[in-house]
């Protein structure tokens, strides 16, 4: 029989590895094999935008593409069948009328087509896939790559008549699979690299998922095996995947939380168990003659269907009996009659003496096809005197799926329990061990065993998966780029050096040898069983030494989980067994876990403080650049001035000691080692060229684990000034020769900061002078530091730019005076500092009466500190205050002088006070004041005992020391009280019946001294009245009680540190009243009484939606009514919560009262608070259906669930209209640009020769055939528009339609020919079968020249021509002259695009159409729309559109008559879309310039751009061999960016520069060593396609 084979061979270069190889082979006995090989690296870029572009292109090219998908999607969910439509036959076969038959037929056709193939194989080289979503500034992407892929699909087909598939096996092998995430052009490994193998077995049989005999759904078994799998997980991985998920959800237009259940599937599967419940029982399977017995089988042999194999016992294995069923079956009965023991070999053993003691332990096992092992099912013992019946579950009564074990392979193992045998041999019976090993033969066991079984489809699982890995490691990482970047508060004085790695791995969770097995039964309720086992281990990074320490010792765990899903409920049952677990957690482990938790909370919060990971933070507080490192190692870390470094020990084996050197001192001279584990201060000295550098090292705790190491010099300078100054430090040093030298150090001292300390000794740092920064002023006089002792201060006169003098205190303080670590600190501070606690700025007048000078100065107020200007030391200054410019200054003046600081009682200097001042500059002082107006919600225990400075006078001036140990004098202006209005109302304060002051919302005022109780009033415009609250009386007597026994409606007392409530009722008419509730609190801060008034109730919106609410107060008697009608109600709104920020609270301004009455109504019973919530902004006040049910507000109801109606929040849809218009011209658009071609042709060579000397007949001999070579020397650039593709489709459809139309005369001729057809086997029948149609083509018997093949004695052959013979003696009659065709080109490119008409005004279109009409006349393209619509459809006798050309359109000046058959098919007979396509593709107006049409005519939209480099085609057709070879070397597929917009309105053809986005690009393969050229990308060959067997080969290199 014939064999037809397709293969795709390698390119004709030695040693070149093909990239793509596709082979097909077929024969009568062996099905076709397909091999695909890709051995050249390639990369694919995928994105949702490219998917949109491709979809849009296909929808434009194929208009039916989108409609078919839409129709299928719309019909599929509605295919729902009722229970009556789905019947059950007697054999348990499900019958679904209508769609089931169609589905079976469609799937049957698919399987028949697949059954033609036997094997599919694929082999690839390196593959890189980049998957993106939509354009985003962060550029999220997933990268996947693998070095090789091998896949084999084997198909086991059934009989040819059925065309069905019995089974299929797919094996996939992946090598070096690596998955990465990419965010902001930064890639990080996510999974891998690792190697894995996947085995997928599909078997078409009856199972729980498909009990039908058609077997449309196979039973699937998946086996996945892999080696070491490393999974990396950090903040950047999470952010990248979350961003991709959000972009995908936005692209799909779906909400991630909205998931709808498939009711159709549940309703169909709910009766699946009933349909498949019928069981097929069989009894005594092994002894009814259906099974064939096989004895002494090979160990490797497994029984086939209906076979029982017996294995005799050997030293390596026990005896066993094994049998196989045709399908998985459940054993319902296993009964073993007394088995005769073989005791003849040992006469000493007598069964009568042993009785029932002599037993043989056995086990019944089944084959688990998922785990590929035999599993114990039941254990029992054989006896010679008693029968044995196993306890098996009842099929009809068992509802638990896991109790029923269905398997096609079963076995009974003899002597399975060796321990029992050893116990029997130890009782003293000699030879019992050896006799027991051979007591029972497997053949005797089969004769005594009855096995009953049954089969039902719901016994068999429909799906199984096995996961087996060598090890899985989860690496948890920190990505510092995604965490907080703000400066740590504890390290504000130092700049981080950013030397930490951007990715830090801190934990490894490993699972060794994890195995997971899962089975699924799909009958009715989906039933799943999961088994798992692994060895777990966990390691945590310890930041002290940067080593992984084990916090969880390895332990084994295994378990089983059973899940049952039904339409009613979901049940889960599981067991987990864990070995003893040992957890080792210490202080360092807690620190690592705490840092990890804080890091994950900081994810995507760059405003958060930068985390300090390491145990040590080394800070350089010197003017020098330092190097440090661990001793006995090569470590040296460079640390610049005023920088910090997070340090961990280099090695845990070397001594954990540090040493330091100064970088600027030439060669590295290391200091003595020191330890940083103990808190304290010590000094290390470095000797260099006669100089001594003392480095003071301070070890301070940051917390219980972390420490800060500050390295500083002996000289420190701090500034409390409010302006930047420039310092000049004079250094006196002596060298090795004893000569003294003077050096000057210049540096800038910013305001309220300190500069890095100087590494100078006290004897070296001798002089200091300063000047104002930024001004070309003179330096101040030198300050001789050797004369300035500890606690001494001096005033420095600094020249200013305006000619005045700035006087500054310079105070010298020593830290650790009596220790070697003594440090000198210089503080620069102003003479006087003014602090005003008033809410508004004031004008301060400084009078120097002795000099007759008076200088005004504005003091900001609100607790801010301002240094006094134009002041001098030892001069008395008088201060007067002025509230506003139009007001007069205060009459009383306050005298101040620098000598007053000596009269203020101050304690002696101590190290703690100096250190406290330094902590302020290091930003480590946690004793920070509350900001003005000193309101805090937290109780402050330190200020709870603070007393009110005065309450009977409006203002007070206080003089005190500004800072400890400094001579600066602080002048404070203290009001008696501050009144803060944080409510939403503008309030009026009444004292008695007199209006005192108005306090707007959010303002702070200084109230007058209240002599009587005050009231709060609100102006209500509806009543034009100010409504007042109950009077509040301030109590200032400390000994008086906080609450006095006044009537509730009379006066409310408020202590200096207390809280009171005040209510204001607005309105006078019932059901038109509102109640405002306020809370008044009082505290004393800085001797000032702070009175705070705010709304009593606060509401917070933590949702992402804007919520509207209506607050109401309802009295108990109103709640008994059936309906509460609210005439007037207030609606307030709550803004949605912002992302990554806490929700902001909002106060409720007022409550609507649903009952009138006097103020006494609030006594007892009190009204109840309710809230009505709404979602839509257009909700009506009286429309109850737009609001939620009233929600009660009570303290005993801390949490409630409220359903909020959405209301009428829908928006009106969009309408669109399509307007037809008559086209008045057409454009000739280029399809192919100009190109050059060179053609070389050579005809065939023939000569005439006589056949024999006796015969005068001659024949023609072919020397060589025809030869044609076509060389395209330039590039071929094709342009294909959507309109041209649509026109091509129309041409094909019309021509195919004409071919299908058959003439009646032709049918009659065929009928007559069929009548005269001879009988089968006649010569004419043979001739017609082999000759085919009677034409003059290749292989036709009617050809005038016939080519025959002559075999000579020498073995050579040649061809000659002969006349045709009527007797067909040759089966394959090849009658043609051989020919060779070779076509090459430099490059072929294809640009696809769409050109749509731009929007024009109707008048412009009509004017242009009129001009074209005057030029062309009444042609077929110029008919009106009404005439075109009236044209009937094309008849079958009318010629197709294929005969219509542009020349015909140009020459069609006379009008064509409608309804008559013309010689050419006009465009008028086509429907409108085809007409437009034809006119756009075959226009009549010649373009003046290629690619140029005019201005604002078309809108160009490019699609894709395909470039093929160096293509070649070879067609060689000879009598013995034929070949078609097609190849090209490179290919590129590109598209336009998603935001592409053509800026040239007159452009009609795209350019190569328009396509800038790569979709597919190839990489050159390995260069051949001999040829020196890379392999082609694609090579496609067809061989021997005329005389067979055919061979087709294709390669992608």
Structure overview:
This protein has 1597 residues and is mainly β. It is built from 20 helices and 86 strands. The strands form 14 sheets. It has a 28-stranded mixed β-sheet that branches. A hairpin with a 4-residue loop joins strand 27 (547-565) and strand 28. Helix 1 crosses helix 2 (63-75) and helix 14 (1282-1300) packs across helix 20. It is extended, with a radius of gyration of 49 Å.
List keywords for this structure.
1597 residues; ten-stranded mixed beta sheet; 39% strand; extended
Report a brief summary of the structure.
With 1597 residues, this protein is mainly beta. The protein contains 20 helices and 86 strands. The strands form 14 sheets. The chain has a 28-stranded mixed β-sheet that branches. Strands 53, 56, 61, 62, 63, 65, 66, 68, 69 and 70 form a ten-stranded mixed β-sheet that branches.
